[in-house]
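IclR family transcriptional regulator, acetate operon repressor, Alicyclobacillus macrosporangiidus. Tokens?
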Amino acid sequence: MLAVTRTMQLLEALVGAPDGMGVMELATALDIHKADVSRILSTLEEAGYVLRNLDTGRYSVSFKFVAMALRYKDHTQLEDIVHPVLVELVQEIGESVQFAIEQNRQLIYVDKVEGIKPLRVASMLGQMAPLHATAAGKVWLASLPDEKVAALMQERGMRAITEHTITTLDGLLRELAVVRQQGYAVSREEVNRTVFGLAAPVRDRRGQVRAAVVATIPMYEATEERIEVVKSGVLRAASKLSERLALIW
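Tokens:
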């Protein structure tokens, strides 16, 4: 019971610290031994509930909490802005759509709306997006300089999820150059052998990519004509969300 209490105290402290907290800072604030704090943080990080800033070593809560809240229909300001736009997009294109947000150099899917077709692509709500393989991940990576992309890939690796996954840095950098030029990213069976994904960036008031709108299509339906329809809708939705979320970002 004491371990649970300490875990909740630690999480509450992190929720109240937008810039994150270090191990010693948490230990002092909560009067908990440093070794116990490190052990709790390690468990929470492994489960995806906290993130460690690799530059500062400070910990912060992850958007997995937001995803959990969305599952239970709790309303947040983010959901109030994002969800109606996703609903409109599904009504326009008919496909399943998701919203992925960046935090501490990770992307997590925090909202979704199922497509209206009988055959739908499975949602990744609450999951981290593999940066090198998903359309959402590529959209965010394309906003970074190549040297930062290289450092991230060296740190995290480029695991082959399917036989279509890009697993070389040169191949990824070539793909990101295309993404920067065209303004959207695609994933062709790189995470799921039967799925085509398309994502567009959502930017904050400073123009930085903070999130992505993603649509997924069964691969057998991903004709040039169908992709063009989906692309147009996703780009419009991302632009609309960039304007609206600039009020809070």
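Residues 1-66 form a domain with the Arc Repressor Mutant, subunit A fold (CATH 1.10.10.10).
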